[in-house]
Amino acid sequence: MSKESLTREFTSYGVVKLRDHLGQIQRCAKMLSEVQLWYRANEKSNSVANLLLHLTGNVRQWIIGGIAGRPVDRARQAEFDARGGQTRDELLGPLEEVINEACAVVRTLSEQDLAKEYEIQAYTISGIAAVMHVVEHFAFHTGQIITTTKWLLNVDLSLYDEQGHRRDGRTEEVP
């Protein structure tokens, strides 16, 4: 496989995974009431709403600010400190926007962009590591949102059937 095709496979797959996880998050958030979105099991736990704020801030800081070099103003601790005040649409809208913007950035990354070092959140990190971080971080919190939704609603949210095939008919293959 050439370096160019490997770069395209990596960036395309990152975009596919971010969009897939966003779909899961949207599905869960739309099932929860406004009260459930802000529910915390205890003070050491985050609500789904806090995780939506956090994911929006993280993707904006790492991809839009870090890799694309656009100005970003983020109050990270405020993402966790919030205890209400925003509706589902006010939480999902910015997350959807930042994912669309981040996916557009990731799609355009070259081999040189992925190898380049960036200063992000007090870290010196390569572009490939930054993209990996964002996809991995997004997946981790998506799992928390799914688990919280299952606990609150007692619903099966599996995307896969007993044979491991997607229930929504989509494939995992990169476009």
List its salient traits.
single chain, 175 residues, mainly alpha, Four Helix Bundle (Hemerythrin (Met), subunit A), 64% helix
Folded structure, characterized:
The structure is a single chain. The mean pLDDT is 94. The chain has a two-stranded antiparallel ribbon with strand order 1-2. The two termini are 17 Å apart. The longest helix has 29 residues, at 3-31. It is mainly α. The protein has one domain: Up-down Bundle (Four Helix Bundle (Hemerythrin (Met), subunit A)). β1 (117-120) and β2 form a beta hairpin. 64% of the residues lie in helices and 5% in strands. The chain contains 7 helices and 2 strands, in the order ααααααββα. It is globular.
Give me the secondary-structure topology.
Elements: H1 3-31, H2 34-37, H3 48-67, H4 76-81, H5 88-108, H6 111-115, E1 117-120, E2 123-126, H7 127-153
Antiparallel strand pairs: 1-2
Helix pairs in contact: 1-5, 1-7, 3-5, 3-7
Q: What best-fitting shape do the alpha-carbon axes yield?
A: globular
- Sequence of secondary-structure elements: HHHHHHEEH
Proportion in helices: 55-70%
The overall average pLDDT, rounded, is 94
Instruction: Compute the number of helices.
Output: 7
Q: What's the main sheet like? A: 2 strands, antiparallel
Q: In angstroms, what is the radius of gyration?
A: 17 Å
- Uncertain segments: none
Number of strands: 2
Q: Percent of residues in beta strands?
A: under 5%
CATH structural class:
Mainly Alpha
